[in-house]
Amino acid sequence: MGIISKDIGLDLGTSNIRIHIKGKGIVLSEPTVVAINKITGEILAVGNQAKEMVGRTPDNIIAVKPLKDGVIADFDGTRMLIQTLISSVIPKSLFSKPRLVVSIPAGITDVEERAVQGVAYKAGAKDVFLMEEAMAAAIGAGIKVEQPEGSMIVDIGGGTSEMAVLSLGGIVVSNSIKVAGDRIDRDIIEYIKQNFNVIIGEGEAEDVKKQIGAATSAMTDEKMIIKGRNLTSGLPQTITITTEDIKNAMSDALYEILRVIKLTLEQTPPEIAADIMERGIVLSGGCSQIKNLDRFINEETGIPVFLAENPENCVLKGLGMALDSIEILKKTTLARKR
What we know:
The chain is an alpha+beta fold. It folds into 2 domains: 4-135 and 314-337, ATPase, nucleotide binding domain (Nucleotidyltransferase, domain 5); 143-307, Nucleotidyltransferase, domain 5 (2-Layer Sandwich), CATH 3.30.420. It is 38% helix and 28% strand. It contains 11 helices and 19 strands. Strand 11 (151-156) and strand 12 (161-167) form a beta hairpin. The chain is flat, with a radius of gyration of 20 Å. The model is unreliable at 1-5 (pLDDT under 50).
């Protein structure tokens, strides 16, 4: 039991944090949210409990996401989140200097990289390995990254979208943009504000995206009733939103993601590009599940597009597979530092 507890995969996402323990698999998936007492600085709740407080807290309590656009915005909040959640899945008697493999965006700076490592060490890690999200997602999606043929993964999460072309166990071309699920939620809020004169919360925007959102026009225009506040009267108001509304709200963000997918393909060597044309693009990440997104990318690029199995867990699954194989760990992680 003690041996099992010392290898941990950590998918530190902007929207959700997921934990994989070697020998056990995925043991935790919770929102990346922390509730803090502004007066004392005390952490009152993390994960699901903290998310339930968003928009409902008194003035002395704030519920925040300590990561923004895939990087750490609140060092102490992130440390407490990691420490609390790891402690919740590992008995304290066994929580002694675990080895962590943490996913990071491709566009991370040296300062941001050190911040991730610093948080992991402060949370109690003995060794910290960093793996690019796209590489972890590709491994978790079942792509044979060590083969000489080229493959392409597009991982669309909460804070960032990662595009990478892989071959022979390495990343040939990669791009990362801070346009993903959170940006789409904000665009939905703004669209409803501008077109309905109603303000809705982030949770409502996320729900409508998941339930009736589509990247292309659907055969049937689904409808959903949502609640918000009228900007003129200040009173609660119920409105009906359609799939076409959400498609229009998401359009700018999806075309920006598409632009960087095309850029990545343009930067790819011709031989590998031919492989991708034949083998297709694999989508992963929670936001890749937007209805018709695979069709949208296929129509705009002419390349086959496939949605990975359990796309929201591909990064964490890849981290877990790296923990299971020391060879994968050595070949695919960026650094091991003490």
